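User: I'm curious whether this sequence folds into something compact or stays loose and floppy. Could you predict its structure so I can see for myself?
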Amino acid sequence: MRFVHSRKSDKPLYYGSYLGLDRVLGSVHPVSRSLGKEAHDEHLFISTHQAYEIWFQQIIHELRSVIDIFAFPTVPAKLVIVAADRMERVSKIQALLLQQLSILETMSPMGFLEFRDLLFPASGFQSTQFRVVENMLGLKSDSRIRYGKTGYCSFLADKDAAIVKEAEDSPTLLEVLNMWLERTPFVELGDFDFWAHYREAVNAHARMDHASIDANESVGPANKLKLHEDVDSWLATFDQLFDEEAYAAAVKRGERRLSYAAFKAVIFIELYAEEPILQGPARLLKLVRDVDELLTLWRHNHSLMVHRMLGAKMGTGGSSGFHYLKATTGKHRVFSDLFDIATYLVPDANLPPLPHDIMHRLGYVLELGSDASAAAASAAAAAEAASADA
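Assistant: Here's the prediction. I'll summarize afterward.
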């Protein structure tokens, strides 16, 4: 039953007061204006950054709800859909933030120079909410590009540093998704050993590629040798995947963020994404990738805009400006593991169909978590017995 809020006041609600427009629209205070010679473009500069902060607040609101959903020991399938919807909302906001850069780019470098020196030492690096977003996604402190010789929180006011540190110490989206994936033990269910079937599918795909190369009469011996080497190189990428100790070593080196069990679960979901029971999880993982990609695109485009405006000048907060921002583009990604999954996909033709009873049990496992494995097996057995009796 859905609860509907109702207002108890007799006073009519007014649009401007509901949105707090007096405070919002009255918060643009160009520094140049206070000095008696207002730089026209400073108003745009402030308005654009305020809009960013409003949208960062909404992103934090959505991420917090998604993290709360997956922090529970069991996640009903319908809540996976809710989480996916909210991650889609985050991705749409990010797409809008990318567009906002183009509005800021209508300001020329000379227009920016009219008021830039008045901003020292304020800097976009001091955006508390952006740091919170990064931390909520799962960016670790030791993975950050160094900004000066001290930690990134040292550039924030004490109260803001405390907020960022709290986000750093709280469960992240990466952590709760990792735990959720680990709780779905469908890689081995009953007599069906997905991992063994998958390994054979990989080898079958490689054999097929080798045979196709040999049968291609239009390719010369030297090129055939190179193509065979490419197939063998692709096959070698699976050495770590099929060796749990080697994978664990990669996690320890910081090359992987997802656990071995979680990574295998993602592969399973991606390979069988068209199965109805897996469409929700597959959509969620796609949207998490979208969010990571859009944030990377925003960092990249932001660095280009800064390069256009400042060249190689130092940033207002004392950073190396463009060079610092460019370095964060690749280094500050969180969900690279989800992008690497594409390396390990094989065609449907090489995959075994999932047995009906596995799909039935999988529904229970995804709905209730790992503790449901035994219950799922019992339910499947009961269903089969009932069918036999009928």
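Summary: The chain is about 65% helix and 0% strand. The longest helix spans residues 276-310.
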